[in-house]
Amino acid sequence: MVTNPGDEAEPGTPGTGENICPQCNGSGEFSGRECSDCAGTGKVIEGIGGA
After folding, report:
1. What is the total count of domains within the chain?
2. Report field, pTM of the whole predicted structure over 0.70
3. Would you say 37 and 3 are in contact if contact means Cβ atoms under 8 Å apart?
4. Which domain covers residue 26, as residue numbers?
5. Strand-pair category, 33-34 with 29-30
C-alpha cells in the first residue's frame, strides 16, 4: 500500500488511524501548493491510543 511522507505507518496497521494532516490542517494545500506530507489528501496515518 502507498504511504505519504507524513504517515507514521501503513494504512491498516494495528494501533493506527487517520488523522488530520498537521502540516496543512486537513486542507491538502500548504503555501498554495499540494501538501507534501499528505500528498493533498488532508489526512495522515498516525499512532492512536499511545501506540
Report:
1. 1
2. yes
3. no
4. 17-50
5. antiparallel
